[in-house]
Model the fold of this input.
Amino acid sequence: MKKISALLIALILILSSVSVLAANPASISAGDNGTSSNLIVVKKPETKNSATLKKTYGITGTGKNGVTVAYYKWNGYSYVSLKDSSGAISQTKIGTAGVFYKQVSLSSGHNKFAVRAEASNGAYQVVYFDINVLDQKIMNNVSGFSNGIQSLYNGWMN
Done:
């Protein structure tokens, strides 16, 4: 009986260490696309390259129930996991509603992010996207240019 108990404890320790290895890592390389392509769909941002005037942004998407989603930001060398308030990897487990959400802080200019989704069987998917924070002066210039074109168009039509 003691041998069976010892064997079961050893088996539990081995299996728990395997599940820890399958968790989302602290960083990922830019070329890692994963082993799956159907775990999640990022809905916002809508495209691989997006722009905003805001300093925060809500990353949203849909995915399979039970999949764990982790969030990463480019540091110049690799994508490093965002941390929660306790310093752990910021991640969301998708529930029965099938959605995930993460509010992220943006720096001025170019921000590169990755979202890594991992299923319980170890399959994972990585989605990359860029969010550019535009300067208000640029938006004013674009708006002024657009108004000038509209005035020109209206002048031709009258």
Observations:
- The chain has one domain: 25-149.
- The longest helix spans residues 136-157.
